[in-house]
Write a structure and sequence with these properties.
Layout (H helix, E strand, L loop, with lengths): L3 E2 L5 E2 L35 H50 L4 E2 L7 H19 L14 E6 L14 E6 L1 H11 L4 H7 L4 E7 L7 E5 L4 E6 L1 H20 L8 E8 L5 E8 L10 E5 L10 H6 L4 E2 L1 H6 L8 H20 L6 E8 L15 E2 L18 H12 L32 E4 L5 E11 L7 H11 L12 H14 L14
Parallel strand pairs: 11-12
Antiparallel strand pairs: 1-2, 3-6, 4-5, 5-9, 6-7, 6-14, 7-8, 8-10, 9-10, 11-13, 13-16, 15-16
Helix pairs in contact: 2-9, 8-11
Length: about 525
């Protein structure tokens, strides 16, 4: 092969002439860079105008295809928007029908918070439950166990849908409260908080702005609390534990766990797990929140007629001439327990608590269908775990199965389903004298004969100390109303008034009218 010299002085191989037909595939090269077509005998050569015409035709076809795809996407987006509006309208209608709270889905503002809460509870409770039981120490009351969750996971924590941090406070103390003092089966408690979750929230009847989330069987409440309440519960935990141990039939709120979740941007949410005072198997036809205060303690009766789940107050009870109809034996027991609990709260220097009273009319029964509403749930893939009252230790089949469930459960999304609330009492209330009658306290006449009413009573909101802010509130409200009738009064006066009011509204008492402000 001979070489020739180019214009720049370098030796180059001679140009190769090709006789192959040019490809019609689209390229980014310009038309001027195409190799010249060598005409074949008997066939006319392509000219530039014909090539440009073919390119224009191909471009037009592609443009038409792009237009069709865009139109299809716009139509699909419009259909999705219409479907979303339909779902929103349907959801709005459902929320007006559901009486136990607001349904939570992925579009709900608290969806991520709820997901993180439940994931943290599952891991923390199962870890503590798998350890061997031991005698409590002083350090157990101040203990804090930390967990970090991310989308990758590690040996200690499984992968999660979101990044967050979780704290479990005094886990061994709350474990003993649950198992030894409140008689909760450990596996039963764990499964209630890990099998399915009723994603239904209910705003607190008070002014705290807290939210309630119910467990799948409606037995437990996850309640968000303020940081001050969280600190206060930790500070009184030892006293609370001692009081419950000495008073097994206490009416005080039952705390089963104290936790904190920290979201990625630093927001910290504190919450407790408590008992649901109202049972899952009975409709509550009337609800009252009683403090012994009568200033600003009236729920509008016209609104109450429209909302059977309204939480009524002291003046509603007095104006309706209600009373706790209990025979001599039950009344004496309830009065004594209220005295002990109010004395304990007085020593803790707290106030603003109340007696929550739920009334079930046995003649009406459950025909109002208050409980049976379709609620949204999500169900992690937890294998069947055998329930038994014995201790679950670290090497038992139950603990092994639960640890495997923690690793293998797919928590990537929430599904929808329906919940079937039980038709009978779960049995754990039978240990307590005030919850032995269908989970509550059945009314009796003066001869202790049964009546057709069941009361569900308990002292709630016990985490409000008498701080400087409450003192100022007492002074301010006392300027425009009787300072002995307003809600914020010093703890000693509050406890004495609270106990006097509860005695007065029982059968044979003086009635609540004397507590009215003049």
């Amino acid at each position: 092969m001979s070489l020739h010299q180019s214009a720049d002085g370098y030796l180059q191989p001679p140009p190769v002439t090709t006789h192959s037909r040019p490809s019609r595939r689209h390229t980014t090269d310009s038309a001027t860079s195409r190799p010249p077509r060598v005409p074949v005998k008997g066939q006319a050569a392509y000219d530039d105008s014909e090539i440009e015409g073919e390119l224009a035709s191909d471009i037009q076809l592609q443009a038409e295809q792009i237009r069709r795809e865009r139109q299809s996407k716009r139509a699909k987006a419009q259909q999705e928007a219409e479907a979303a509006l339909t779902r929103t309208a349907s959801r709005t209608q459902d929320e007006t029908r559901v009486l136990v709270g607001n349904l939570i889905g992925e579009d709900h503002v608290n969806y991520v918070l709820m997901y993180n809460m439940l994931t943290g509870i599952r891991i923390a409770v199962s870890r503590c439950q798998a350890k061997i039981k031991r005698t409590l120490t002083d350090e157990d009351f101040t203990a804090r166990h930390k967990y970090s969750f991310d989308i990758i996971g590690n040996e200690l924590t499984p992968s999660a849908k979101y990044d967050f941090k979780f704290k479990d406070y005094a886990p061994f103390v709350f474990r003993e409260l649950r198992e030894d003092l409140f008689h909760l089966d450990p596996a039963d408690y764990l499964l209630s908080l890990t099998a399915k979750y009723i994603l239904s929230e209910l705003g607190s009847p008070g002014k705290s702005g807290s939210f309630f989330y119910f467990s799948r069987d409606y037995r437990f409440i996850i309640k968000t609390i303020h940081h001050s309440e969280h600190k206060y519960l930790r500070s009184i935990l030892k006293d609370y534990y001692k009081h419950v141990k000495e008073n097994p039939h206490t009416l005080l709120s039952r705390f089963y766990g104290l936790h904190r979740v920290k979201l990625p941007r630093g927001r910290k949410i504190h919450f407790v797990i408590m008992n649901n005072l109202f049972p899952a198997h009975k409709d509550i036809h009337e609800t009252y929140d009683l403090k012994g205060s009568t200033v600003g303690r009236l729920y509008p009766e016209e609104k109450a007629a429209e909302n059977p789940r309204a939480v009524l107050k002291d003046l509603n009870w007095i104006n309706r001439e209600k009373s706790l109809n209990l025979g001599p034996e039950k009344q004496a027991l309830l009065t004594e327990q209220l005295r002990r609990d109010s004395e304990f709260l007085k020593k803790l220097w707290v106030m603003d608590y109340s007696l929550l009273v739920g009334i079930h009319n046995m003649q009406r029964g459950n025909r109002d269908n208050v409980r049976r509403r379709t609620l949204k749930v999500f169900s992690p893939d937890v294998p069947h775990i055998r329930r038994k009252p014995t201790q679950v230790n670290g090497s038992s089949p139950e603990a092994v199965a639960m640890r495997r469930a923690m690793r293998e459960s797919d928590l990537k999304g929430l599904g929808h389903g329906t919940i079937q609330l039980p038709e009978e009492d779960t049995g754990d209330r039978q240990h307590f004298i005030f919850y032995q009658d269908e989970g509550g306290l059945r009314a009796t006449d003066e001869q202790n004969e049964l009546m057709e009413t069941i009361y569900y009573v308990g002292v709630i909101d016990i985490l409000t100390p008498y701080t400087t802010a409450k003192k100022l509130e007492h002074l301010w409200k006392g300027l425009s109303a009787d300072r002995h009738k307003i809600s914020p009064v010093p703890p000693i006066e509050y406890a004495d008034r609270f106990f006097s009011f509860m005695k007065a509204i029982m059968r044979g008492g003086e009635g609540g009218a004397k507590f009215k402000a003049e």
